[in-house]
């Protein structure tokens, strides 16, 4: 039969082994939890990236549509400017009809130089 000291030593050894086992299990559980948390975070990031990609495409499509509409409007403005040429004699204090300017000895300014919109 083991002595009391031998039994205490055996119990201390067993306790040390159990503590070591517990520490290893704790490390393993933490690693699993960390891995699970990491995977969840990665899934969330991928979902946000997908949403951002969709939003970016919407913005690009909207921008394209606006550019097309602006181009159409600029074309319409240019058409209107061409129709005004020869019909507007004074704009913004400047004479835009050459015959009127010549008749009065004043400076002639082209209509497109007075209009605030530039030709495309």
Please characterize this protein's 3D structure:
It contains 3 helices and 2 strands. The mean pLDDT is 83. It is rod-shaped and about 135 Å long. The termini are far apart. A two-stranded antiparallel sheet has the order 1-2. It has 2 domains: 71 residues; 31 residues, no CATH class. The chain is mainly α and 120 residues long.
Write the layout of secondary structure elements.
Layout: H1 4-84, E1 90-91, E2 94-95, H2 98-104, H3 111-114
Most strands sheet: 2 strands, antiparallel
Task: Quickly count the domains.
Answer: 2
Whole-number mean pLDDT? 83
> How does the helix and strand content classify structurally?
mainly alpha
| Fraction of residues in helix | over 70%
The Rg value, from CA coordinates, equals 42 Å
Q: Any low-confidence stretches, pLDDT <50, length ≥5?
A: none
- Give the strand order, joined by hyphens, for the main sheet: 1-2
Instruction: Write down the secondary-structure element order.
Output: HEEHH
Beta-strand content estimate = under 5%
Please report the number of helical segments: 3
The CA-CA distance between the termini, in Å, is: 107 Å
Query: Oligomeric status of the shown chains?
Result: single chain
How many β-strands, per DSSP? 2
Overall body shape: rod-shaped
Please provide a brief summary of the model.
With 120 residues, the protein is mainly alpha-helical. It has 2 domains: 4-74; 85-115, no CATH class. The protein has helices spanning 4-84, 98-104, 111-114; strands spanning 90-91, 94-95.
């Amino acid at each position: 039969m083991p002595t009391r000291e031998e039994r205490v030593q055996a119990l201390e050894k067993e306790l040390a082994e159990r503590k070591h086992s517990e520490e290893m299990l704790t490390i393993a559980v933490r690693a699993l939890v960390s891995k699970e948390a990491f995977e969840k975070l990665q899934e969330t990031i991928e979902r946000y990236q997908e949403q951002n990609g969709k939003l970016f495409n919407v913005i690009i499509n909207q921008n394209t549509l606006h550019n097309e509409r602006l181009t159409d409007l600029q074309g319409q403005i240019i058409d209107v400017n061409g129709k005004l040429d020869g019909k507007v004699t004074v704009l913004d204090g400047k004479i835009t009809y050459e015959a009127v300017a010549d008749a009065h000895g004043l400076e002639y300014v082209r209509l497109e130089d007075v209009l605030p919109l530039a030709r495309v």
